[in-house]
Amino acid sequence: xxxxxxxxxxxxxxxxLYRNAxxxxxxxxxxxxxxxxxxxxxxxxxxxxxxxxAGAYAAAVGQGRxxxxxxxxxxxxxGLVVSAVQANMSxxxxxxxxxxxxxxxxxxxxxxxxxxxxxxxxxxxxxxxxVPVLSDIPLVGPALFDQPWVLYLIYPVVPAIWxxxxxxxxxxxxxxxxxxxxxxxxxxxSVNKLRRQTxxxxxxxxxxxxxxxxxxxSGRFEDSLIGGRxxxxxxxxxxxxxxxxxxxxxxxxxxxxxxxVLTIPxxxxxxxxxxxxxxxxxxxxxxxxxxxxxRVRQPAxxxxxxxxxxx
Amino acid sequence: xxxxxxxxxxxxxxxxERSKMASVSExxxxxxxxxxxxxxxxxxxxxxxxxxxxxxxxxxxxxxxAVRKPGRWGLTLGIAAPILLVGLGTIVSGRxxxxxxxQEGQLVIGAGVATYVGTRIGGPGPLALVVMLACGVVGxxxxxxxxxxxRFWRSVPEVxxxxxMGAIAANLVGWGLRNRFLLLAPPEGRANRNQVSESLxxxxxxxxxxxxxxxxxxSIVLGIALAIIVWLVLGRTVVGFRLRMxxxxxxxxxxxxxxxxxxxxxxMLVSGGFAGLAGGVMLAGGDFGDYQLVANFGAGIGFAGxxxxxxxxxxxxxxxxxxxxxxxxxxxxxxxxxxxxxxxIADVVQGTLVLAMLLPPAILYMRARxxxxxxxxxxx
Amino acid sequence: xTSASDDRFVNGQFVNGMMGGExxxxxxxxxxxxxKRFGQIVACDRVSLTLHSGRIHGILGENGAGKSTLMxxxxxLVLPDAGQIRLHGKAVQITDPIDASTxxxxxxxxxxxxxxxxxVWENVALGDVGRLDHRHVRERVGEISEHYxxxxxxxxxxxxxxxxMRQRVEIIxxxxxxxxxxxxxxxxxxxxxxxxxxxxxxxxxxxxxxxKAVALVSHKLPEILSVTDEVTVMRDGRVVRAGKTAGTVASxxxxxxxxxxxxxxxxxxxxxxxxxxxxxxxxxPTDAHGTTAASEAAAPVLRLVDLxxxxxxxxxLLAGLSLDVAGGEIVGVAGVExxxxxxxxxxxxxxxxxxxxxxxxxxxEVATGRAGAMGAAGxxxxxxxxxxxxxxxxxxVAENLFIADPDRVSRRGFMSVASMRQKAAELIRxxxxxxxxxxxxxxxxxxxxxxxxVMARELSHSPKVLVAAQPTHGLDVGAIEYMSxxxxxxxxxxxxxxxxxxxxEEILDLSDRIVVIFDxxxxxEMAKADVDVARLGLLMGGAGVARV
Lengths: 311, 380, 548
Fold this sequence. Notes:
The complex is a heterotrimer of chains A (311), B (380) and C (548). In chain A, 70% of the residues lie in helices and 2% in strands. Chain A is mostly helical. Chain B has helices at residues 20-49, 55-68, 72-95, 103-118, 125-154, 158-176, 219-236, 238-248, 250-255, 260-285, 301-311, 316-334, 336-339, 344-377; strands at 208-211, 214-217. Mean pLDDT of chain B is 82; it is low at 1-19. Chain C is built from 20 helices and 22 strands. In chain C, 54% of the residues are buried. Chains in contact: A-B, A-C, B-C. Chains B and C meet through helix 8, helix 9 and helix 14 of B and strand 1, strand 2, helix 1, helix 13 and helix 14 of C.
């Protein structure tokens, strides 16, 4: 028992645990903030994986020609393209949004895999940028302020999403259609158009998420790069009760669990089969949703397609 | 009955009977167009991205690999069997209104349990085979049942739980394959085995038949038989009726005596059971390796089954053909390596096909509903 | 079919204390030859109408006459196929509600356009354009609320407001943009009598003080007669009568509405008429020997004992509701919307589980919330929203008829399609359900026919109790008559009928005994012979009852 406790202490006092946790948390957060807006509008987009993967691939290809910023822009564009398919098939043509999302995941994986097979993009890792003073805070300082500089992009994004949702007219309309699309329609709002717009936003943010992850991690593109994190981002939104604060908390927690997979073996604890570490994020996610699902209030019209005249 | 005065519009004209021929041809055209667009998109991708093969070669090669070359359609049948089984399970849960997307996980758990049982129990071959498959069914069923329980007792959306449990399943089985006491095969000579199980003894493999030079396991026969049963149960029995009711309108169903917990969890169990059976059949059928469990055993069959069910619009009999089609894509793409085109193109074709197949029903549904909504809202 | 604007001011003398003397009332909106088709059905056929400033214009017609479609065209929810809309003499195109409001036309909807989860000011701001300035919106809400005496707090959540208060928010939402034309679509269906009075007083103020034009869409004759300055009657999509309200009588309007001579007593529920004398004299359903079923039955067939149920957000939906229904009697539960009626219906449909209390059928307790238990115990329900819990739209008529007892058409678990079709055909004939056959999808039937299917199914189980919640909502006169007849027949056969309705006229027409529901419990009761409409109104509004 003593060994176990001291092992725990060892793990949790290790800087790199938090560093890795933050890196994973941020990719989740880019995706989750977009999906939060989309779910507030009443949609669920399983295709976050596809958007992120497309973004990562575009970033890998783009940075060779246009540098990192260019790569990120291309990533956003790629995510936007995927999200356009999701948005228009589900909220213009009334195809089932779960099915479309799922298929997109497989389709984009296939397309990207196919393209990589033909010409593999070069890799590129982004430098770390260390913020003085703040990064000296014990334990979490380096995690927050001594990271690849692309990570810092999340810091303005989160408050911007908050402002968008709660202080602008667009945000008010988005929230209205997620609660009562019929009343909103009668009040003159264009329900499906707004829904599509939120999904486009999600697409761009997820694209950036993919690009960011590529640059922050290994720089080398593999089609397993996203590895299911798109689904965990959705879970974070649910876990957070469809609030921004909750989603941030969810992403941090899931990021921490995700980083166990990397950190624990590297610290020398080989006793645990890596399979269990790999499982941990999924198990924690399910456990979290089980505990919290009944207590949270979802947007009333979540996952219900809107066709005027149909209840 | 008191005298009823029929005011002119008190009963709307029942929806006009459009000529049946007209609407059937409209549906067929719509599908044909979407199909064409899907294949065209994939063709464009090949032309654009690969300098090694033109789209005509790709499609010819796939066709060869799927059915034309000797022995191939037998292989395709063998691959179609588990796809069909998974698809049937998806139809059951789908008709009940549930979104099960964890078939890969349920399949692999089923295969894992079947391997464990199949490599350990004694007894006459055929009996062992049946027991083994039954255990696979139970394994898959329970795996899906957990998600069902979470959905109905804790309101956790099953779309996420089935998916996440799929990831867990893959890891669990991987772990099982690293441990002798579970699934790992005993060392061969002096070298340790790496993540493979023992092969099944010859007497507990699914019998294979040969017709016109094509060899395939009887699992496809089982699949077709089960497809007919599912079709009958869903369409003609009281249980199926109640299940479909649940899938369409939970409140009306509840009012009418359908206990959604019982029917819903039951549907999930059946769905997982089919996937588990598919896993067992993949193991004992012989078309997926050498009758042994290996890492990444699922090979995307679970997903293919899910997609096949969607393309088949939740119709069991149609699923038989769609499963064959998807299997054909897989076996066909096996031949692609020789041409230098990445086998991934098969995934792409599969994906675009599914997307394209989603469009016609969506369009038709919207049009039909619009007509009716217009008719009924005209009455105010 | 011509515009009814010509004979306005010959002796501008109106009855009921309305505008006396001549006053210049320029037309604000002219609808000219508006035509709208939905598929083969012509909802509006060359309809013309003029709305003048300073006047309340009533648009009367039964359900299905086309009045709502006409107003939807005015507000931009529907685009007319032909015809013209003129604003102050200039032709305009109205493409959507926001466009309509820029033209100064606003509508207070029948079933509100408010988002429950948001606050009053957020709802009022919805549909605006431009930057969101919450301070400005809040101020505006306060101003309007003061000016018209509406007493609404901008920061209240809609979910916490009663139906009457919500309507006021709707009105503020309209008035905020300072429209010139206000359209009210069946506004009193959710109001108690005193709230209706209040509303009409507010309308008067709006029209007289600010010179706006008001269009009042209704199917209730008394309202139209007492409130409007001019009235247009529509039938089958056409205007059949137009003119000043003063000097018209109910029977003329009724005849115009229905197209034939009308025996008002039979139809007064459909027209919203309430004549206490008529009520007391209405014949009770009797069997061949002239005895009423009610007079024979002693023990109640349905007993509701102290029902309590709290909703998701802690709100008490049922707060000690107790009620008995005897076999053969029709008990009418009157009340304003949202006082527990829906919850009561849900409990009796097995869709809600009680926190405490008992439901007994013939003395035997029935488990609440358990799937199908109420139906099995003999309680048939015609629900308020048939699409929600009354039927499965995607199933066929035959399947819907046997949705609760498929065993009746099956053997050993296998359903017999032939048997189902045959039995369904019988029921279709018996209840005159208008459809293409037993295999017609439910969604292809009209509202009235769908209601017949639900009725047929429930009655075919020979229930001991029949609960009818808003059974004639949205139906035309013929269908209303039919439903009312069916309820009387059921009662005559010994079924205990519980009629839950927000239409007081319907309750008064059909019930043997009337109770009032308020705040989740029964607050008053009276027999038909002793009915006191004024007192009913007070009880419905909660007067004299301590809030729980």
